[in-house]
Design a protein that fits this description.
409 residues; alpha+beta; BirA Bifunctional Protein, domain 2; Rossmann fold; 2 domains; 8-stranded mixed sheet; 15 helices; 16 strands; elongated
């Protein structure tokens, strides 16, 4: 007997009984994002490796540890670990900067990262996300946050907490980085290996560390004093203040988290996460922010941008199971040819109908119908001769015989 080939660790089949929940996630996304004026974009699942190195940042864990990269025809290609860089590449390549601002795009699809599989996270995972280009005002930041909360609420998720922070602009952030390094210098040897590597390359990422010993260091009063300081310049502070006023007026409850920096290098000013209390320590279901320099860094014109992404596996883990949708009808007959013909007539009218392909006994067919359909459509000898059909409501057991051309389910 041949050895069974199993699914790779960190990947998962989406089975038919699970697919209906995925359809709901995608359907709600289409409806809500369309309402806000967003258009769907679909980018390739692999790109030039340079796109992610330049876009995501060569100091990030994603680029350093987690990308699936391979060589082909002397070119380095990478399965996309996230989709903002790919959408920005498409925005530039297809001349979308010439369109009237804002340019609003949304996407869904698989991403790939080599990391330890955990609750709601796989090596092949799926994201739904949005990107808005061309608006520097904080109204854009507020809109994407509000739209994210509306989408989550449409799925029945209400136990949510929005966390926000401002990372400032590159100018005011440099002074903050310098102060972070100064206050952490005496603790350098006590930091984890990743934080020691980030110390010179990207000191803000230290604040995102999940190692408990590093968290204890960051909680010390002298370090917290620097972390909690208002380092951002006047213009960035006004942007942040206006964003909060929008959220207040729109009744979006939020908390400010000075440790929130996000894991990607391209963010500036606004960063945010939406968290669920039902996911344990890894409880973020949505993350995003502003990335005003990314379009320029990837070769385009200077274009402000803001967006977010959600892990669809995580969303699925929070939602109750959906009852499988039943067929409109199931044709029950000992005449396979007549059953097939009648099923096709009903399908042509737009009904979801099946019949017994294996020609099982009449009672077995009724049993199958009761499990998967709303109505049993019975074609016995009398019905076939008279051009009628007996329609049995499988919920109430009521049964009527009507002309088969007049059937309505």
């Amino acid at each position: 007997m041949a050895k069974i080939i199993k699914v790779l660790k960190g990947t998962k089949d989406i089975l038919p009984q699970e697919a209906e929940m995925w359809h709901k996630l995608e359907k709600n996304a289409l409806e809500i994002f369309t309402k806000y004026g967003y258009k769907e974009i679909r980018t390739p699942i692999f790109e030039m490796t340079e796109l992610f190195a330049r876009g995501v940042g060569d100091t990030t864990d994603i680029v350093n540890k987690e990308m699936y990269t391979f060589e082909k025809s002397e070119r380095s290609l990478t399965l996309r670990p996230e989709n903002t860089a790919g959408v920005v590449r498409s925005f530039i390549e297809n001349g979308m900067a010439r369109l009237s601002a804002p340019v609003k795009l949304w996407y869904k699809g698989p991403m790939f990262r080599y990391e330890r599989p955990q609750a709601g996270r796989q090596r092949q995972f799926h994201q739904v996300g949005v990107e808005m280009f061309g608006i520097k005002e904080p109204s854009a930041d507020a809109e994407v946050i509000v739209m994210a909360t509306e989408y989550l609420k449409s799925l029945g998720l209400n136990d949510l907490e929005v966390e926000i922070n401002s990372l400032g602009c590159p100018t005011c952030r440099e002074e903050y980085k310098k102060r972070i390094k100064e206050v952490l210098k005496p603790e350098f040897e006590n930091l984890c290996e990743d934080c020691q590597n980030r110390y010179e390359k990207n000191p803000l990422r230290l604040l995102d560390c999940k190692v408990e010993s590093c968290k204890e260091i960051f909680s010390k009063p002298e370090i917290q004093k620097v972390i909690q300081s208002d380092f951002i310049c006047e213009e960035c502070a006004e942007h942040y203040k206006t964003l909060k006023s929008y959220l207040d007026k729109l009744n979006v409850k939020y908390v400010e988290n000075k440790l929130l920096v996000r894991g990607l290098d391209y963010y500036n000013r606004t960063v945010f996460e939406i968290k669920s209390n039902n996911l344990g320590s890894q409880n973020a279901v949505c993350g995003g922010g502003r990335y005003d320099s990314l379009v320029r860094n990837l070769g385009g014109e200077d274009t402000p941008a803001v967006g977010w992404a959600m892990g669809m596996e995580r969303l699925n883990s929070l939602l109750p199971e959906i009852e499988p949708q039943k067929l409109d009808g199931y044709v029950v007959s000992n005449s396979p040819a007549d059953a097939f013909l009648f099923a096709q007539e009903l399908r042509a009218k737009g009904y979801n109908v099946e019949f017994d392909l294996a020609n099982k006994k009449f009672t077995k067919q009724l049993e199958k119908a009761s499990k998967c359909a709303k109505y049993a459509l019975i074609l016995g000898e009398d019905e076939i001769k008279s051009g009628t059909v007996s329609v049995k409501n499988l919920e109430t057991s009521e049964q009527v015989t009507i002309n088969r051309n007049e059937i309505e389910l």
